[in-house]
Amino acid sequence: MKVLSIPVEKSKLPNLKNQEIGSIRTYNPNRKIALPTMEGLSFERIKEIICLEAKGNYTLIHFKGGRKQLVCRTLRDMEDMLYNDRRFARIHRSHTVNLDYLQKYIKGKGGYVILEGGMNISVSSGRKQSFMDAITVYFR
């Protein structure tokens, strides 16, 4: 699959974040991300990430197959590295999930999600509406 890069003038796109200015990435399901670890960099496919979990100034990444990796970035930094990929939705102060791996959403004040592999994560009441909006758009 070929990824296209299109030059963009900053003045024409004032709402883009710094890392997005200069090119707009087309969707590439096999795109990899460089994860800073204690040993160096680890290159992983984004589609393999089930969820991100904040651990102070670090992020614990849960991968398909049960593998986990601690990276030297905050959850917010990791979300920025994903270029606001529509597959990912922040559901709690300390959790971002990949919508591809949702199995169920259980209603409640905030409710909770069940991900493939059996992981249960609470949806905070303050993030419930943005989560519901994200799944409405994603699963159209």
Tell me the overall shape: globular
Number of helices: 2
Which bin fits the share of residues in helices?
10-25%
The ordered H/E elements are: EEEEEHEEEEEH
* Structural class determined from secondary elements: mainly beta
Low-confidence stretches: 1-14, 16-25
Q: Judging by the overall fold, what is the CATH architecture? A: Beta Barrel
Feature tags:
10 strands; globular; 2 helices; three-stranded antiparallel beta sheet; five-stranded antiparallel beta sheet; OB fold (Dihydrolipoamide Acetyltransferase, E2P); 140 residues; 13% helix
Give an account of the 3D structure.
The chain is mainly beta and 140 residues long. The chain has one domain: LytTr DNA-binding domain (OB fold (Dihydrolipoamide Acetyltransferase, E2P), Beta Barrel), CATH 2.40.50. The chain is 13% helix and 34% strand. The protein has 2 helices and 10 strands, in the order βββββαβββββα. It has a 5-stranded antiparallel β-sheet with strand order 5-4-3-7-6. The chain has a 3-stranded antiparallel β-sheet with strand order 8-9-10, with no helix packed on it. Strand 1 and strand 2 form a beta hairpin. The longest helix is centred in the last third of the chain and has 11 residues. The relative contact order is 0.13. The N terminus is likely disordered.
Short account of what is shown:
With 140 residues, the protein is mainly beta. It contains two helices and ten strands; from the N terminus they run βββββαβββββα.
